Amino acid sequence: MKFDLVWFDSMGAKSSCVFVETEDVRILIDPGIAAMQPSFPAPDYKKILWREQGRKKIKRFAKRADVIIISHYHYDHYLPNDIDIYRNKTIFAKNPNLYINESQRERAFTFYQKIWKEILHADLRLEENREKTFRDPAEKLASMKMDFGDYNERREELMEKGRKWFERLSSKWQRWGWIDEINDERIKVIYPEDRRFGFGSTTIRFSAPLFHGVEYSRVGWVFMTVVEHKGFKLLHSSDLNGPIIEDYSEMIIRENPDVIILDGPMTYMFGYLLNKTNLNRAIGNAKRIVEEVDFDVMIYDHHLPREPRFRDRTRDVWESARKERKRVLTASEYIGEPPKVLSS
What we know:
By secondary structure, the protein is α/β, with parallel strands linked by helices. The chain contains nine helices and 16 strands.
């Protein structure tokens, strides 16, 4: 198995795009990109330049791919307007009908309208929703029973609000029309959550829908991807934000991948969308992964290098890697360059 780190945040634009190649299949994971936020310490022209450089590189790799994976519908994980890159591909994409929030549903709906119009030369038709009941994905999480000390009361209040939000949202899924998968010689679109697919001696596995960050994250759900070929395994976490949820770090530890593409906490949002309790959870979970997984390399990048203090704020993870003598790097460091946030 070979892999290329196509574009990541450390290269100057928001992305978590990886190209994986085996003797059986060529896979592009999360081909999306977005410019850095206003607080990123670089002039706007550089942010635009890096975004366009990354977009062009992603499109070059898309031409080589047989399979394109879209873990969710945020713009740094898929290209919504470059529809031609999806032509003649097999697309494994986040199910747009359930375990999805309103904004991502709207983006997905527009995306599939464009696919139907530009590739299939027809109008997208919505079918009747096939699901009537939806399991609350937080119910079985061990993290829901953890003791958070002084934060317990506030956390329970937030979890109760989260449960009510999930109930309201899942009632909308029942009313939305169903966007069907596509099985056509011009494009295939498959919703792969909690399934596995074989390509010769290569297996691609997908997790069930996972929260994008904390329990009941209003940002929605994503899935993890595992590519395995002849005993060698690569795991791409998508947007678990740390991972913040302990169950998700346990999943990664059980997988014991050779290569981990792990997104980190959004430290540039610390004090706003990320509090100290959840930052400490993310650090502790990543530290466990470093200590307990026998990996060759861990790329610890997406979300992190969006502000200069990212390494200091996650110091325990990097220190653990040093003590364990394990390779934990940003994507730019993996290719021999410093993160743009530290050099621009």
